[in-house]
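Subject: Cation diffusion facilitator family transporter structure
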Amino acid sequence: MNRKRRAALLSVCSNSVLIVTKLAVGLLTGAVSIISEAIHSAMDLVASLIAFFSVSRSDAPPDACHPYGHDKIENISGVIEALLILAASLWILLEAGSRLFAPEPLTGPGWGVLVMGGSALVNVLVSRHLYRVAREEESLALEADALHLKADVLTSLGVATGLLLIWGGMVLGWDLARLDPLVAIGVALFILKEAAELLARALRGLLDHRMEEGELDSLEALLRERCPRGTGYHDLRSRQSGRRRHIDFHLTVPPAMTVDRAHALCDELEEAILGLLPHAVVLIHVEPDSVHPL
């Protein structure tokens, strides 16, 4: 099992444990904010399962039906995850809205504080590991999964703070029951923002968005440096699919340059590009440049 699959499996296991714990404590205390967090973790679990499947398939080599590989599976999984998060946040808004106008007393909010704090700690550790693997392997699916867990950390801390205030209010005889659905609404709005950002990132890859500006600048600087005198390039295009960068451009050479020399030059440029972008797929179209006779 490779690093990406191990990281995705770790996320699946941690989310499974957190769902059961949060749901049990949410039902025990009657806190809609905890139940909303359990639903958030359930969405994280679905996202983790999708990520596990996508990273398992995205590294599969090209085949007859998919000659360009399977990298976009990770983008598709990102779209599905974003839509799931969107649906969960809307449900939380509806449930919390009804509780806001008809608040219910909580029992044992201290348990909720303990569980939310423990959940935040677990997700901090897991999300850091996922981010590290995602950066090193350039995996959008793992990055999306790590983003979910990072959001879960913030929302768990928010819920814990709200429950702590409610707990303090109960001790002092204050009625702060409406604070619970208000925190849940805050959680839902945060998740909505997360879903929108993830959806935008995932769709960029599906729409063949070009490489990042910094990578393009580095690529053009490399081509200007490595193209010999009398040669040049134009019509540089790029698109990103998972961790792969698909790059193509026209290389202009003197008309008298031999086919062997032009082919060798293409190999040299491709090798240099792979040194800069290890997972690049490079296609070079050679054409004569009558302006620069040999």
